[in-house]
Structures are given as structure tokens and as C-alpha cells.
Amino acid sequence: MGNENAYDKLWKIIQDTKFGMLTHRHGDGHLHSQPLTTQNKALDEDSLLCFFVARDGDIARHVPTDANVNIAYANVHDDDYVSISGTATISEDQAKKDELLDVNALSAYRYPASKRLSRPRSPQHRCAECWR
Fold it and tell me: Which CATH class is domain 6-130?
């Protein structure tokens, strides 16, 4: 591991971890955490961590007024844990959403297998990009 940079080390920990717990602050100051699936296929020093969030959900409502967030990952099989703080933005970039979208992953929790034939174009999903 000696020649690896911080992004390589981070990617090794999170690439096979299904969920990260994203913590954000509500207007009343309380912290709230929600599990999100990292959408990145790779990570380097120019990458942002990307997630899909509900357009009308807590994250999309609160990040524009307080962009300070934290995401924690735990890879219990390798006994690796990481907690990353930074700032988040909400993006409506359709090209980025199309690039990141894993049709089967997204549709698996919303549609039965018989309905997974085409890419769902759901207006209720936004792309949350974290950390530069």
C-alpha cells in the first residue's frame, strides 16, 4: 500500500461497500443520517462521490441550505472503516445521471423484474455530488 494515494486507498475501502451512511443537518440543527449507494464506477483525485437522492427527500431539501455533510463506510469483512466530511451539491445534470445510472440497481428496488426492460426516467431522482 505504500505507493497508493489517498483516493486509491479510499476506493479500495468503498468500492465493494453497498451503502454509505450520509449525515446532513436539518434546519433545526439536528443531524440525520441516511444510507445511500455510491454511484461511482471509479474514484480519482478529480472525482466526486455521487449518489442518487429523492427529489423531494430530506437530503435534496436540506443540502442547499447547509451543504456540510459526512459519509461513513464500513467494510466489515476487511475490518476497514472510513468517515469523510465535506460539502455536497445537488445536480440536475441529466448526462451525469445517465452516465451513473445502473438500470438494474435502480430498478431493482422500484420495479419487478418484468418491468426492468428499459431505463427508468424518473423525475423524482436527483444526483447528489459530494466533495471536491
Answer: mainly beta
